[in-house]
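User: Quick one: structure for sequence A, then sequence B.

Assistant: Sequence A:
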Amino acid sequence: MHTEDETDEVLAARVQAGEQDAFGVLVERYEKKLLRYGRKFLPRQEDIEDIVQDVFISSYQNIKSFDASRRFSPWIYQIAHNAFVNALRKHSRNPLTMVDFDTFMSYHVEETPKDMEREHAEMRSLIEKGLEHLSPKSREILVLFYLEEFPYQEIADILQVPMGTVGVRLKRAREQLRQVYNTLNLEPEL
């Protein structure tokens, strides 16, 4: 067995076939990533570690529902995303609203790679400094796109929204970040 050379999707298919050791490799590959992702939502490391463990338990219990013809990372990030958002709702003074109109409406977005690459680098440094001042909805979309570097389609899969909605949410989140910088007189490090 060459588990280190195998894709996440192959490993997940092996777990579906009953090979439990393959799941250990997936845990090794995603544990640090999910812990880093969780730090963007919650301040306490203990809470983040507990949730990441719950994410792995849930993903193992539900591995049969994973479609091995699709990418594994959006699937496990969707589980993690839901867990972190639920925890954020419990701990937040401003809980997320239950009705999300962006989920029902699709928006058309055109991506130009050169512009997006430049903007991506600039936003990374801005986000790190202003993240804690953003709403949970803005925080999640910026973290997924700029810090975790997921493409629009995978973010749409994780958040379970139409792909065009991802672009609209990114635009709104960037606006909110700009307002944070203006309000707090933060200096961008560009």
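Sequence B:
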Amino acid sequence: MPGDVVEDFGRSIVENVRDRTIASCRTRLQADSQHARSRKWRKLAEAGDSDALLQAVIPDVVDETLFYLLDAIDHGRLRLAAYDQDGKTVDLYEAGLSELGGWYVGGDWPKRYSKEPYVSPNDEG
């Protein structure tokens, strides 16, 4: 049986990342949503191209999930550490300056580091 720390971590991941991503994506599915991803998903669904819809939705949901993970770190709801090049432990909450989520969606991390195509959340695609 996992200890309290592991259970707390599991709860935090589910509440702050999984549940928030699902709720956000559900909102994107509402007919009156004007978010760029919502419009893109509706356009592909209306065209009846389920393959193209899935090709768009899968990376969008992954990116949304990563955003909520970084957002949880940014707001101290999920405390994680990383090791720097010298092996020193670095608290991501402190090092990230509450901007990890913003750097992910507004910056170029996916463009620079991903081997998969990246479409900005604001791109109508």
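The radius of gyration is 17 Å. The chain has a mean pLDDT of 91.

User: Thanks, that's what I needed.
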